[in-house]
Amino acid sequence: MLIVDGSFDEVKIKMKVIHDEKKRDAKTLKSLYKKNPIPENVQNKITKLERQQELYSPAKTLPVQINGFIIIFKLYESFMKKLKGFETRIFFNHKSLLIEYWKIGRLAKGVLVLEDMSSCFEGFQHIPVAVLTDEQEARA
């Protein structure tokens, strides 16, 4: 995958702002119930905010736009590193990027599905645009 337009710098700044907001909101909710048990609906909201903190952590997640939708570049990048020595086929299916991988002559095989994350990054102006390189050419 090759980034052809934009950089991660502006996206990281926006993600850090949202990450800090989610962290602050979770901390505020927790502080309201320091001496009392936290009601289940409030605990669910805290759990959701903590999950969103991970989603908007630039160290763990970086969005990239490819073929009209957004995937998590860090997940793609780390998975592709683990597939050294495997045969791969990358293709698009509706609103996801699929990576099939296998080793010739072995039973080791699988599929990674990277779903469209556009709804999580609405309002982000500067998400980098990527394309697959020739050796990774995808099928629709």
Please characterize this protein's 3D structure:
The protein is α+β, with helices and mostly antiparallel strands and 140 residues long. The protein has one domain (2-136). Helix content is 36%, strand content 26%. The protein contains 3 helices and 7 strands, in the order βααββαββββ. The protein has helices at 9-32, 40-55, 73-82, and strands at 2-5, 63-66, 69-72, 87-93, 96-102, 109-115, 129-131. Helix 1 (9-32) runs antiparallel to helix 2 (40-55). The longest helix has 24 residues, at 9-32. The chain is globular and about 60 Å long.
Structural class: alpha+beta
Q: Estimate the mean pLDDT confidence.
A: 88
Lateral strand order in the biggest sheet: 4-5-6
Work out the radius of gyration. Answer: 19 Å
Find the count of extended strands (DSSP E, 2+ residues).
Answer: 7
**Uncertain runs:** none
Count of discrete structural domains: 1
Instruction: Tell me roughly what share of residues is in helical segments.
Output: 25-40%
Envelope shape: globular
State the order of secondary-structure elements, H for helix, E for strand. EHHEEHEEEE
Number of helices: 3
